[in-house]
Amino acid sequence: MLKKNVLVIGGGPAGLEAARGVADLGYPVKIIEKADRLGGMPILADYAALTPNMVNAEEAMGEMIQRIENDELIDICTSTEVIGVSGSSPEINVNLKGPEGEEHIQPGSVIVATGFKHFDPGKETQMYGYYEFDDVITLVDTEKMLKAGKFVRPSTGEPPKQVCFIQCVGSRDRQIGNAWCSKVCCGIASKEAIEIRHLLPDCKVFVFYIDMRMYGFWEDEIYWKAQEKYKVNFIRGIVTEVTKRGDQVVVKGEDTTMGRPMEVPMDVVILSVGMEPSEGTSRMAELFQLPLESHGYIESIGGALNTVVTSVPGIFVAGAAGGPADLEDSVSMGGAAALKAASYLRKTGLLAA
Amino acid sequence: MLKKNVLVIGGGPAGLEAARGVADLGYPVKIIEKADRLGGMPILADYAALTPNMVNAEEAMGEMIQRIENDELIDICTSTEVIGVSGSSPEINVNLKGPEGEEHIQPGSVIVATGFKHFDPGKETQMYGYYEFDDVITLVDTEKMLKAGKFVRPSTGEPPKQVCFIQCVGSRDRQIGNAWCSKVCCGIASKEAIEIRHLLPDCKVFVFYIDMRMYGFWEDEIYWKAQEKYKVNFIRGIVTEVTKRGDQVVVKGEDTTMGRPMEVPMDVVILSVGMEPSEGTSRMAELFQLPLESHGYIESIGGALNTVVTSVPGIFVAGAAGGPADLEDSVSMGGAAALKAASYLRKTGLLAA
How many CA atoms lie within 13 A of B119 on its CB side? Predict the structure, then answer.
């Protein structure tokens, strides 16, 4: 028998679950991560609490990481990237570059779990003034502050009195080329709104939205909770401009429920930036010759009934590399991809000796 | 070694994927289904096309079924139910009742994939007149007609000229006790709206909604398509009553975008009924002593980072038995549960000889 393992690319929730899953079946796995530590976006972008259960991101991801450490079946390589791919399964050659130089491997199967990147709201959406005004920040900037146990106006360092979230920044927007809904931003904004109200009971918090996409249990576990227990104000509206007046930022637009224009001064404006395919995801698609679906994510074949199988034999996709995904999606896909990759080794006789 | 297999309960998308997954790893599996055929809700409730890819439900589910047939590792038992459970893993006793009488088995692991039931809109929500007016039907009734290639007014058998969907029937409703969002109804209603417009180009179609929860790629693949290509009218509104006038049904409520009361005559009103835990799900929770989460679905432990593991060793949950789930969720969870169940057999030394 050939001695082959599964290569998992990406150390976020999907990749960690996939690596654990492959090893749980008794198969060897190598997990590589471009960054210098595992954990993916929740760790690298300093998330405070995870949505929807509001558990501490560092602790929860720490547990996932711990579950793959010190396992002789799992080879963990951080600061490691795929730099070249040739051949095809079962003779697929992958060149890696890590801290100790280059390495050539021949994995039996590959799981691409390279995730997403946050939309950059300065790049294409100028109207929100992200790079102009200090007090216009993103969901991600907010996570960093919340993780540090505080929430302040960046321009003054003082606690704000009035804060708003603007939803769908970089999502549902044909003009910037991102037609998709990023799925998680409504939940994350509501979660952060709760955290801000918890930290600053005197601060008013508004969420300007088109549709609140609080599916499943998020409806009452986050959305109702935010409204009823934390008195967060959800306003259906369209924001057309963010400008500055005195030392405040002013949000202009239309309250579409009341049918009237609105112009509200805010101390901090938080842009609910969506997901885009990460550079790693685009790069892996290119290297492994994985077709992209119409939005630029890695395509799985078979539609809704086949979530992790790509059109390239032996190569699977998990998590937000395949499209906007919440943590549940990423973890379920990680498990499903582990199953498919291990089964692929078994069927093709590529099991480790 | 003890000879143990995995028992999969439920022959819908999650169960079928789980059974295939376990067998793909080389482990034996028995899949049981209460109904006389496999396929779950898409088959038993006569779905026309699946959301979001609009593939023929019978063909797509037929392919899933075909993939588990004629496999010596997979024992398929239809018309079979669990009638008793005792002991706990690894000595769990399950009594089944099938066409040939009762059977006692000792599975090494169990995957509960018993799904959901559609909310009954007559039972608790009287205001929509489901049992009073022939022309008030549900998403499910509509699927049946669409599957038969037609869409008519039930009262006359003629094609309707004006049709509407009312969203969130049995969901997001504290009064009836269903706080959750059922996740898929916005997508399914939009899909059916497209199908009706395709069949009857002269029929006007309206969707009355609170929030259109068209997450991920559903946004442009169904929602924009429905509006732009099929001219479906989406109206943000609250429907308070459905009454009868002459031979039409009249929808009364408020258009919350325009801020005005509405009263619109319709030939057919379609209630977008949500999901509830199925009787099988409640019954399995009871028999296997699986804790329920606060909404009455089977609880997975570990929040978002652990989607299929229950608090009972060796028992896993997949699909809508664990909460509102779309097809992607069900299939990913089916794969993830197969992985966990197979790993459980391996770790506990319960592998088949």
Answer: 29
Measured between alpha carbons, how far is B84 from B95 in angstroms, rounded to an integer? 5
Kindly state the DSSP code that residue B220 receives in the 8-state scheme.
Answer: I
- Which contacts of A253-259 are long-range, i.e. CB under 8 A and separated by 24 or more positions? A253/A208, A256/B257, A257/B256, A257/B257, A257/B259, A258/B259, A259/B257, A259/B258, A259/B259
CATH code for the domain defined by B6-115+278-347:
3.50.50.60
Q: Which of A43, A109, A181 to mutate to test the interface with B (most CBs of B within 10 A)?
A: A181
Instruction: Answer whether A346 touches B (CB < 8 Å).
Output: yes
Closest CA to B206 of B144, B249, B245: B249
Give the ipTM.
0.96
CA-wise closest residue to B21 among B323, A303, B13: B13
Chain-chain contact of B346 with A256 (C-beta, under 8 angstroms): no
Do A215 and B220 make contact, defined as CB atoms within 8 angstroms?
no
For the sheet with A204-209, list strands across it: A136-138, A268-273, A162-169, A204-209, A233-245, A248-255, A260-266
Pick from A10, A4, A88, A15: which is nearest to A337 by CA?
A15
Distance CA B198, CA B192 (A): 10
**What pLDDT was estimated at residue B125?**
65
Q: Which residues of B touch A64 (CB under 8 A)?
A: 305
d(CA B169, CA A157): 47
**Which of A214, A325, A331 lies at the smallest CB-CB distance from B305?**
A331
B180/A339 CB distance under 8 A: no
Contact (CB, 8 A) for B267 and B163: yes
- When CB atoms are compared, the residue of A212, A215, A327 closest to B305 is A327
* Confidence band, pLDDT 50/70/90 cuts, at residue A302: confident
Q: Which residues of A touch B40 (CB under 8 A)?
A: none
CB within 8 Å: B53 and A214: no
Task: Say how far apart CA A352 and CA A26 lie, in whole Å.
Answer: 10
From the list A347, A339, A308, the residue with the least C-alpha distance to A90 is: A347
Are the beta carbons of A336 and B340 separated by less than 8 Å? no
How does strand A74-77 pair with strand A29-32?
parallel
Is any Cβ of chain B less than 8 angstroms from the Cβ of A188? no
Q: Where in chain A is the domain with CATH 3.50.50.60?
A: 6-115+278-347, 119-274
Closest partner CB to A215 (pick from B181, B331, B346) = B181
- Per-run averaged pLDDT (10 residues), chain B, 353 residues: 84 98 97 98 97 95 97 98 94 96 97 97 80 96 98 98 97 94 98 98 98 97 98 94 94 90 96 97 98 97 93 98 98 98 91 57
CATH 3.40.309.10 fits A119-274, yes or no: no
Among partner residues B215, B236, B308, which is closest to A215 by beta-carbon distance? B215
